[in-house]
Inverse folding.
């Protein structure tokens, strides 16, 4: 099977830019939808001629009780939603889930820890064993576990970690209304450590948290300004969970998500653009529009970390209806 590490250099990557202005990005986000889709498809068809979609399964290894106060997150100990009480998973049950994900057709296995930062010790040693085990199954391995040190990043790279997920979540301007316990700059530094260790970068954000169109453009500007672009860019629609400060947030118009995906695709032609949280609230047709707009990955399996996701069978039907083929696991 093919493990897709960062994709090989190609003319699109060579031509892709890191100096997009806010006005240029806003102009894309505001294009008539048909024109935006046309541009995004032209880019996507060249970068991903087979229109293939990666299926990534997600598992929460350590759930809830997190010290950070991210306003969207049900796992923060600052919110009444906190889902603590679930035992932290050990290596073997995690690998069991990874084997099941592979058997169901997943190509990447992502593991989450509700931590502010990784600390050395037994749980980190277990994380390394999980990464190694997932890679031995022939799956890509992704970890999301908060901030890390250079030496932790190095050890994760040595264990074979494919990718580290750490999202910027929103624009630098909107960020303070969402998180107070960790700065934007700290997020950027964590991402830099991941890069320096030679691990591919998974970094994106969330729409539907009360941000303006300008904020969305600004988030995309920071992401596209990273050089090289993040290999993977998750675009989440807020799942408004009861007990979080954002519980009453109105759902985003699905076409806003389509616009965000399409613009990300144009700005970052060879990145994997992941249609992430929020798919349960989308119709089949809205999801297919996101695929047309250039999304080339979905989370696969009936849960995300703590919230629901469409059933695997429904997703296989979705991809078949769209006529796109998943990467083979
Ligand atoms: N603690 C780690 C961290 O923050 O890097 C890892 C886990 S965290 C849950 C991973 C990402 O999931 C967040 O950065 C955020 O973008 C996304 N996320 C969390 N809760 C969400 C929600 N309710 N709706 C949409 N996306 C969410
Ligand atoms: C990402 O950007 N989205 C995923 C993954 N990276 C780790 C997580 C979504 C979480 C949604 C809320 C939950 O299930 O707790
Ligand atoms: Fe903690 Fe991550 Fe949730 Fe923020 S998003 S509260 S860091 S688990």
């Amino acid at each position: 099977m093919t493990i897709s590490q960062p994709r090989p250099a190609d003319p699109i990557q060579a031509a892709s830019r890191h100096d997009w202005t806010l006005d240029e990005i806003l102009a894309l986000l505001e294009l008539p939808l048909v024109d935006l889709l046309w541009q995004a498809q032209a880019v996507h068809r060249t970068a991903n001629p087979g229109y293939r979609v990666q299926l990534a399964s997600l598992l929460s290894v350590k759930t809830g009780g997190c010290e950070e106060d991210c306003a969207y997150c049900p796992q923060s100990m600052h919110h009444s939603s906190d889902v603590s009480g679930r035992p932290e998973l050990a290596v073997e049950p995690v690998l069991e889930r990874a084997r099941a994900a592979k058997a169901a057709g997943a190509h990447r296995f992502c593991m989450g820890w509700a931590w502010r930062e990784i600390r050395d010790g037994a749980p980190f040693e277990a994380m390394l064993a999980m990464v190694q085990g997932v890679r031995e199954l022939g799956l890509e391995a992704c970890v999301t576990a908060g901030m890390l040190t250079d030496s932790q990043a190095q050890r994760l790279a040595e264990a074979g970690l494919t990718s580290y997920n750490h999202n910027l979540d929103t624009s630098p301007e909107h960020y303070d209304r969402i998180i107070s316990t960790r700065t934007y700059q700290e997020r950027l530094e964590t991402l830099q450590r991941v890069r320096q260790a030679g691990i591919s970068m998974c970094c994106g954000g969330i729409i539907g948290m009360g941000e303006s169109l300008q904020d969305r453009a600004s988030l995309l500007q920071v992401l596209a300004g990273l050089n090289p672009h993040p290999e993977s860019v998750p675009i989440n629609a807020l799942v408004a969970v009861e007990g979080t400060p954002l519980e009453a947030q109105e759902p985003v118009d699905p076409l806003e998500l389509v616009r965000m995906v399409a613009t990300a695709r144009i700005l970052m032609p060879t990145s994997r653009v992941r249609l992430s949280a929020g798919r349960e609230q989308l119709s089949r047709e809205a999801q297919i529009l996101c695929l047309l707009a250039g999304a080339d990955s979905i989370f696969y399996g009936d849960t995300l970390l703590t919230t629901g996701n469409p059933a695997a069978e429904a997703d296989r039907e979705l991809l078949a209806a769209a006529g796109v083929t998943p990467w083979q696991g």
